[in-house]
Request: fold
Amino acid sequence: MEVEPSAHEKRAMLHLSNVSHAVNHFQNQMMTMLYPYIMADLGMSYTAVGILSAVCSVLNSVCQGAYGFLTPFFSRCKLLGFGNLGIALGTLMSGLAPSYPAMIVARGVASVGSSAQHPVGYSILASYFPKNRGAVMALNTSISNVGTLVATPLATVLLLIMGWRQIFFVVTIASVVMGLVYFLFRDYGVPNRSGSGRARLVQGLGSYRRMLKSRNMMVIACVFMVGGAGRDGGVNQIYFAPHLANDFGYSKLTVGILITAISAGGILGPIVFGWLSDRFSRVRMLQVSLGLSCVGTLWVAHLGPGVALLFTSLLLYSAFTSSRGTQTQAIVADAASNEDRDAAFSLYFLLGFLSQPFWVLVTGYLMDHAGFATALTVLSGTYIVGIFLLFLMKEERYPDVVERVDGTTPGGARHS
Reply:
């Protein structure tokens, strides 16, 4: 019989997953500050940057869909370890890239490495913390957004003392450390790894088949797909800064302050709604957050200049729209057994993030031809679609006992 992780092991796994996820987000966000210098040195146009981003996004999304096949053969901790080493290799190659094609290859390697973090990382947290998945996944998401928050100012400071190539070399070290530490941890709540390779491959296929037949699983994946904003590297990160600078004429400092509000909302929102989803119906809380996302998006769409009001509005808007991911991930974890959970998360992230380029392109087209207000008004309607999709789900009953990160129940008793 598999031995349950101790409270110390659970805390250590949570801390490791939080830090590695934050480092992952930091590396993605720092590219925003490095691109002008990379473009100048490698002769890249804006179109070239767009192609690079699209290639990395597609690679990352497709690879996320494959981990349900890999976990019957390999430990999830080892997959995360090798994934972080893959990020380190791609980051090192980025610093050495002599040309644009070489940079595409380098960032592609890093994207393949980073693809393990979401499906495998959330799956292992769901196994370690079965009683309070919503709160734990929300904490992990919020800590990862801290990496996004600090990336811009830290990358700015680093650019004052070193070149963009040297920054890649420095950041490589962090991913190497994360990868090596993962090898020290053991997997828990894993799929059955006994039998021949063919038997385990059939097991992986069976997990995907069961998840594709699960109504709850497919509905929740569709809810994540249809939401137009709130995903990493999506509409919020790409279009709000140009809108604030071009439409309102704000300075770089003011734009930076307002974008910080979006990053801060991405930290607070998942924590609050993740905590609530552990205590009330996950489906109903998700519908509430989607409704608030719709209202917040419409409000921001038609908001005029005014720094104080914009800061508060963007903070709340980001808190609402960024909470969708955490809540849908908790429902995915609830909908799948230990045997099928890796396939469930792989499918969820594959479907959810494959739609991101579509929403980015639609929003960009609408902003060019109809303006920011129209673009966000269209996006607000996507949350209403999500609310109605959730009525197709079968409501589940969740455990009354909530396990804390230290392994105890609210009354103080230790969970065995």
User: Anything to note?
Assistant: Residues 7-42 form the longest helix (36 residues). The mean pLDDT is 77. The radius of gyration is 21 Å.
